[in-house]
Amino acid sequence: MITIDRRKDLSYKEFIEKYQKPGIPVILENATQAWKSSLIFTPEFFRERFGNRTTWFSNKEYTVSELLDLTANSTKENPAPYPVKFNILTQLPEIREFMDPMDMNLVKPNWLNHKILKNKLGNGMDLHIGGAGNCYSVHKDAYDVHAWLIQLYGEKDVIIFPRDQEELMYPGKGGLLESRSPIDIANPDYEKYPRFREATPTTITLKAGEVLYIPSGIWHTTQAHGQNISTIIDQVNSSNYKAWRRDVYVYKKYHNKYRAILDYGAATAIGNAFKLGELMGMKF
């Protein structure tokens, strides 16, 4: 079991030295106060401004308003569909004006902000709307990005496993399956996955306005007990570049070896250029 610090007013320098460099998760209790519009992200906010926006999940189209209704009435016995995702960068870009500065003065440098990587090679920022009974698969974030889980409304439990327990997760084989576990966290099948009994997860409750920093390679999942809204900022920089580049190759190789070689070469060139850019003071 790991202990996860809760911090207020954490300086950028201390964050880098104490958490990002050693790869340690941390809860930032007031990081979103850096935004000019903190704690306004209620269901009403999304319904009024984006209620008619649509996305697809399991071959069905949902609007934001429909999903808000479903999650408000979700129960453990009859949970709402999940995870239905809205990509903020492409489907809800107007939200970004309420999240300025997006990096909360902490998520930097972030190579994924550069136009070269826009919507490519693991870059994404999805809005998640969930309800009671909703839980995510046990996983580590694809492409070994650092994940900044931002709770916008409501609260949910986040279950985090120590870094050295990956083999207890029974990760899949091939492509993105390598970052996914078949274990149902709500009802583990110990006969099928006996070593999962050895796992020592830590559960924390993330509340509205709080941010959980999850370093690359950390296995985790979430469970909701009521309606909640969250988003995630992915981050790549020198601290996780090699793991990110490895995943670029491994995931693409599962589908097309030649495309994997090309993307690995592109990731190498981009990484070397960005590392040099950091040394020269380039901002990401």
From TrEMBL:
The entry's keywords: Iron, Metal-binding, Oxidoreductase
Keyword Oxidoreductase: yes
Keyword Oxidoreductase applies: yes
Short name of one Pfam family: Cupin_8
Superkingdom as given in the UniProt entry: Bacteria
Required cofactor names: Fe(2+)
Alphabetical list of SUPFAM superfamilies matching this protein: Clavaminate synthase-like
Protein name, as recorded: JmjC domain-containing protein
Domain spans labelled JmjC: 81-252
SMART domains associated with the record: JmjC
Originating species: Pedobacter gandavensis
